[in-house]
Amino acid sequence: MQVRWNYKLQPNKGQDAFMSEWLVTLRKHRNYCLAERRRGFESNNQHSDQSVMYSYGAFCDIETQVEYGSFCPLTCPVVKHGVMSADTLTKQDRKWLSVSGVQSVRTTELRNENPFYSRIYSGVLQGNLAKLDAAYLGFFTHKRGFPAFRKASNFNSFQYKPGAAKLTVNRTSKKKRCYSHVYLPGLGDMRYLDSRTIPENADIRTVTVMKEADGWYMSVLLNLAESLPEVTPIETVTSAVGIDMGINKLIALSDGSFIENPKFATNQKTRRQLRIRQRRVNRKVKGSKNRRKAGIEVAKLHKKIADKRNNYQWKAAKKIVNTADAIIREDLNIAAMKLRCKPRRIKGRFMRNAPPGSIPVDTFAQSSPRGCSPVADFAPNGQSAKRGLNRSISDASWGNSFSKIDWLAAKSGKPVMTINPRHTSQECSACGHISKLNRDGEKFVCEACGHIDHADTQASRTILRKANLIFVSNRHKKPTHQSLVPTPGLGESNALLCNDVATCGKRHQAGNRISKACTEPSRSVISENRILFEQLCLKLFD
Q1: What span, in angstroms and rounded, lies between the C-alpha atoms of 277 and 397?
Q2: 0.70 cut: is pTM over it?
Q3: CB 73 within 8 A of CB 45
Q4: Please, what is the end-to-end C-alpha distance for the chain in angstroms?
């Protein structure tokens, strides 16, 4: 089983300065190599009739290594633009190389010419080229977009090859969190916080050093001896739980329980902190040290919010996985849910104003800043209101929750099934009636059968019903002091809370939630007075 564990590094001042310098040089190295490939890709086809000097690496395809001369834009463009030195071109008995191989040879020359390149470990430079080669090849295999140039804010990691970094794990300490040491070539020995002990039989693969807002981290890729268990077939499970994602309640389970949404980034206190710190950044002079320091404070707050959310999601995912033997969830298209609203058409036009030129310039100059030209006004389409919803969806981070649930379920051998989310919040789980009028905020009252439930809980039970599974909890719940009274004529799943606990049989017996002593006297009263029934039901949601 392959896992990735993160640890907090504690470098000294010299190592911190070296790693920061490495990131700057590696980013320039990547952009330099990408510029050579991009320049050749854009110019070779335009000047295919000109004579081109090709040396080691005139291959069109890296896998097949077929050469097409100067008529193909993929034939080693780095040689044409003179990135190879004259000494390298005149050497004999050299094998033909790919584009990455040619740039690797050039990188070796840069280590002899530039002191900044010479201070970087050679394996890190080779890994930097390997990442670019994978991104460039992925573009031609139609897997991802064309590689982009990296900014300083978008390049914050470098990687060591397997076997390069040496970890010395402290196994004698009795503390849960102790300090261990790692040797990184080119940087030396460094201490890190051993928050999770690496097993002795684990095979250490790559080590990635990352720079975050609050310091440096190390991500270790491990091959563990144990393997993932086989997933139980969905047809043979004895219990299942349906989950429904939301905003007010982060997750609603089909057993009636909820996982609250703390709203780490959208609560009033955090938004005020972000607003104040971002305002401090905007008031500083661009390019100044004070502006950079203020930006670091904003980044630290975002990092703190992300860590809190990540920790909370792991705990929530563990609770869901331990609830039943199978998990049923919706197959949500979260990216489509956060798209902008389409502009509204008014009389066949997108804008409601008169055509340009019909408004006097003198009239507009009084109301427009700096005398700019009149701008047509768009019709309202609800995007301003949807902006807050999009922010809440991003803060809830449903996709990350799904990933954590899938991973913990795979470690437990439990299946995770996805269903179509269509009409899950409008369909009644008792009779299957679908209507928008069934739902009123967090209340769900079926128009056909009168089934009443919390809207999110109702949706999770509908999700479970679509999978043709039943819920049997693995958790042993404590007995409650309230009993559920089934309502006649409105479906067996409908129930009211009965406050007369003394007449509901044994008070503390688990599972005795439906008592005959309560049901018999209530049948005639509730069936005769439907208004009283609705009032009692609505009190459940107030």
Answers
A1: 23
A2: yes
A3: yes
A4: 49
Beta carbons within 8 Å of 430's beta carbon, 6+ residues apart: 446, 449, 451, 491, 492, 493, 494
Residue found by looking up tokens 């911190």 in the block: 16
Rounded to the nearest 10 degrees, the angle between the axes of helix 122-140 and helix 99-113 is 150
Virtual torsion, Cα 123, 129, 130, 134, nearest 10 deg: 170
Q: Which residues lie closer than 8 Å to 218 by C-beta, 6 or more apart? A: 6, 7, 8, 9, 182, 192, 207, 208, 209, 210
Task: Name the β-bridge partners of 349.
Answer: 346
Instruction: Using alpha carbons only, give the angle 402, 456, 311 rounded to the nearest 5 degrees.
Output: 35
As a whole number of angstroms, the distance between CA 190 and CA 10 comes to 7
Residues linked to residue 516 through DSSP beta bridges, in sequence order: none
CA neighbours closer than 13 Å in the CB half-sphere of residue 139: 14
Cα–Cα dist 323/71, whole Å: 63
Q: What is the pLDDT of residues 436-493, one digit of tens each?
A: 888 888 888 988 888 888 999 999 999 998 888 765 655 544 444 333 333 333 333 3
Average pLDDT over residues 222-236: 90
274-323 tens-digit pLDDT: 999 999 999 999 999 999 999 999 999 999 999 999 999 999 999 999 99
Cα separation, 353 vs 359, in Å, equals: 9
Three-class secondary structure of residue 434 per DSSP: strand
